[in-house]
TrEMBL record:
Residues 180-224, 229-276 form the Myb-like domain. This is Uncharacterized protein. It comes from Tribonema minus. GO terms for molecular function: DNA-binding transcription factor activity, RNA polymerase II-specific; RNA polymerase II cis-regulatory region sequence-specific DNA binding. PANTHER family: MYB PROTEIN, MYB PROTEIN-RELATED. Residues 180-228, 229-280 form the HTH myb-type domain. CDD domains: SANT (cd00167). One of its GO terms (cellular component) is nucleus. It comes from the Eukaryota.
Length: 296
């Protein structure tokens, strides 16, 4: 609990707040330990409506502290963001701009737009994660919703700009994990940074808000790498080589991928599992046919 934000009142202590629902009216003695916010935030509904924020539940207290932290982050975002012109070296800025990718520009974000962004992302995450705290986000839909609610004088905000503002400012750079959390603008950004830094993953991740070096490496090697772009099905020769390598290496898919140009780790693993299922199904069918054959 940040003492700069709260006045703590222990059970039985005299509460000197102008208004409070957690003390005895006659004696002003606290009926339980609670905290009064030093800010001017007020409750919007219920018995406390209109009173300055005060609560006894630590979960509520910490949630209110996070509101202050987010607003402080937004106020100083020009210094904190990975992608503002002042924070990104000129060579990285030029590489991103040459590829037609947006830089994060905190100057186009009003406090109201940032609050709407937070609400839209949280709502999407709740839907896609079944009520959990994380989930995939359709940034195009977020940008469209923001455009529909855009206030007078507010800038038009793209899907990429929404993603960068949420990652760098709202989420304060915290690591983003989960299936489906990568998006097309992020993949394009990753490809440019990998080419620029020659797969120095720590440097790449520095300009990928919310991503760790390992995440960048695995995403590039398994999905984004242009060398993986190929068309057509697996050939019989590739299948034979894959099965031979699995027998020799004991299912070391990364080693197999290096010997099969155009195939990623995931591609190799998925193909091997498909071949194994086909073999098992064929063996089961043969066994069933043999068992059901009439005796001679």
């Amino acid at each position: 609990i940040d003492p700069a934000l709260w006045v703590r009142v222990n059970l039985g202590d005299r509460c000197e707040a102008a208004q409070c629902t957690l003390r005895a009216p006659a004696t002003r003695l606290a009926t339980r330990r609670h905290y009064h916010a030093k800010c001017d935030h007020r409750h919007g509904a219920g018995a406390k409506a209109g009173m300055r924020f005060h609560h006894h539940q630590l979960e509520k207290i910490r949630k209110h502290q996070r509101v202050h932290a987010r607003r402080a982050a937004a106020a100083s975002a020009e210094e904190q963001t990975w992608n503002s012109p002042s924070a990104v070296p000129p060579d990285v800025t030029e590489a991103l701009a040459a590829a037609g990718l947006e830089l994060h520009d905190v100057r186009v974000w009003s406090a109201a737009a940032t609050d709407r962004l937070r609400g839209l992302v949280e709502a999407q995450q709740q839907r896609t994660s079944g009520g959990g705290a994380a989930g995939r986000v359709a940034w195009e839909a977020v940008a469209a919703a923001l455009a529909a609610e855009r206030g007078e004088g507010e800038a038009e905000l793209s899907a990429a700009q929404c993603m960068l503002q949420w990652r760098a400012v709202v989420n304060q750079g915290a690591t983003v994990t989960g299936v489906g959390t990568w998006c097309e603008p992020e993949d394009k950004r990753l490809a440019v940074l990998v080419a620029h830094f020659n797969q120095a993953w720590s440097s790449v991740a520095r300009y990928m808000p919310g991503r760790e070096p390992k995440q960048c490496r695995e995403r590039f090697n398994n999905v984004v790498n242009p060398a993986l772009l190929r068309s057509g099905p697996w050939t019989p020769e590739e299948d034979a080589l894959l099965e031979s390598m699995m027998q020799q290496t004991g299912h070391r898919f990364a080693d197999a991928a290096r010997c099969l140009p155009g195939h990623s780790y995931n591609d190799v693993k998925n193909r091997f599992n498909t071949l194994q299922r086909a073999k098992n199904s064929a063996a089961a069918a043969a066994a069933a046919a043999a068992g059901g054959a009439a005796p001679a």
